[in-house]
Design a protein that fits this description.
The protein is about 30% helix and about 25% strand. The protein has 9 helices and 12 strands.
Length: about 260
């Protein structure tokens, strides 16, 4: 488990995060929800070990996150940012290969070809994997970057090992409806294979449909965290977004959020 305890992040005198607790649990999908400026991206950067908090601790399976070292940490977790810029004339496949760099010189390097092929297939980029990354649309680039992250946490079926983690910062923001569902279907599948997934999601209906757990942020503070059924309530979401929220239960038992 990756666990953030009482995390605070300041810029000047402004708290981007103020006393926040959160966890990424192997085998579960956690949705990170909150309005713009809530601190979602900041929390992801802290949990990923890319930003040191001004207060609090981040632990990976009971040990401080920064004690694992950069390369070892990169073999345990992948991060997909909102905007993953790339200025080099790489093909899409070469971008996906970047996800395998942490395994260079390790026995797992022999799995690179299988990992890249599986990631391209899952992310639906096989048809343009040999195209220049620079020629793609925004949504296509996002899917290539998602494939890169998949390749980094991929493991052959049946192979055991320490848990891996996938951190996604608004992974559906540039995608059409079909590919939004595809990305979260894959996140769900990876969780079923033991990966701990954290995803910042703006679409509340996607969050309620795919998440096991929810972290609810507002103004850098934690409003609630726990199982989706306990956190994603009309009252809780209404207080977070300052709008009237209604949650309906369909005949098949699934729930829908109306704003």
């Amino acid at each position: 488990m990756i666990e953030a305890r009482n995390i605070s992040v300041l810029v000047g005198r402004k708290h981007l995060l103020d006393g926040v607790d959160a966890a990424i649990v192997p085998g579960r999908v956690t949705a990170l929800i909150g309005p713009n400026g809530a601190g979602k991206s900041t929390l992801i950067s802290v949990l990923a070990g890319e930003r040191r908090p001004d207060g609090g601790d981040v632990m990976l399976e009971g040990a401080p996150l920064d004690a694992h070292g950069g390369e070892a940490l990169a073999r345990r977790r992948a991060v997909l940012l909102q905007d993953s810029g790339l200025d080099f004339a790489f093909t899409c496949e070469e971008v996906v290969e970047l996800g395998r760099l942490p395994f260079s010189g390790t026995p797992e390097q022999h799995e690179d070809d299988d990992a890249i092929a599986a990631a391209c297939r899952l992310a639906g980029i096989d048809t343009f994997r040999h195209r220049s990354y620079q020629t793609l649309s925004g949504g296509e680039k996002q899917r290539v970057q998602f494939a890169r992250a998949i390749a980094q946490v991929w493991r052959p079926a049946g192979k055991s090992g320490p848990p891996r983690y996938l951190l996604l910062d608004e992974p559906t923001s540039a995608l059409d409806l079909r590919h939004q569902r595809m990305v979260l279907d894959i996140a769900r599948r990876l969780a079923e294979e033991g990966v701990g997934v954290l995803a910042a999601i703006h679409d509340l209906n996607l969050a309620i449909a795919y998440a096991d757990d929810v972290v609810l942020l507002r103004g850098g503070r934690l409003l609630a965290a726990g199982p989706v059924g306990e956190v994603m309530t009309s009252e809780g979401l209404g207080a977070c977004f300052e709008v009237e929220v209604e949650i309906l239960t369909r005949e098949n038992g699934s729930r829908a959020v109306l704003v």
